[in-house]
Design goal:
about 200 residues, about 10% strand, alpha+beta, single chain
């Protein structure tokens, strides 16, 4: 199979957005090493220390957190590109700033509220023939992974494809998407793309 873009721009995995935060302002030098090794337990220095308070911290592990843009990105960035042995995140087809959730996850809402997830994808070239397949793969991955009250919309980023209007129309047509998922050949391509998702 001949590739549309034989030489795409590839991002290193260290350049991809992540939820892990780097430690800032940590003390350096011999004092910090000794402080880490010789840490004095709080119950020895605080006369009002409550031994029961340590157990309540474990309850926080099970609190429900809203799904945010980073989590959506983590779900779709590992999808394999149908042409290249790289992920959509590495090829910058999906980008964190191009994922929008409404209502915002920071707003305290009822868990049964309908939530819209909009993902704008950027094909590696303006005449990519597999843009619809990539959009379909993103849609399938999110519909499988997100709760049922989430509505997924996948669109081609404006101006990034020569036929973005036509591709967007295909991706928004629910009947066409359902028919595509019944096609065994296309289903095989999508299954191969989603193999790399964790």
């Amino acid at each position: 199979m001949e590739k549309d873009n034989a030489n795409p721009t590839i991002l290193n995995t260290s350049q991809l957005p992540t939820r892990q935060h780097k430690k800032r302002g940590a003390p350096r030098g011999p004092e910090s090493k000794i402080g880490n090794l010789m840490h004095k337990p709080q119950y020895l220095s605080d006369p009002f220390y409550d031994f029961q308070s340590d157990d309540t911290e474990s309850d926080d592990e099970f609190t429900i957190e809203p799904i945010d843009e980073q989590e959506v990105y983590d779900l779709i960035s590992t999808i394999s590109d149908p042409e290249h042995p790289l992920s959509l995140g590495q090829l910058a087809v999906v980008n964190l700033p191009d994922i929008h959730i409404t209502p915002s996850p920071s707003e305290a809402t009822d868990p049964n509220t309908l939530t819209r997830v909009l993902v704008n994808i950027t094909p590696t070239i303006t005449h990519c023939s597999l843009a619809t397949v990539i959009g379909l793969g993103v849609r399938v991955r999110l519909e499988q992974a997100l709760p049922p009250n989430y509505r997924v919309d996948v669109m081609i980023k404006e101006g990034s494809h020569s036929q973005d209007d036509q591709v967007n129309k295909q991706l928004a047509d629910k009947e066409r998407v359902a028919a595509a998922l019944e096609n065994d050949t296309l289903k095989g391509v999508l299954d191969k793309m989603l193999e790399t998702c964790v």
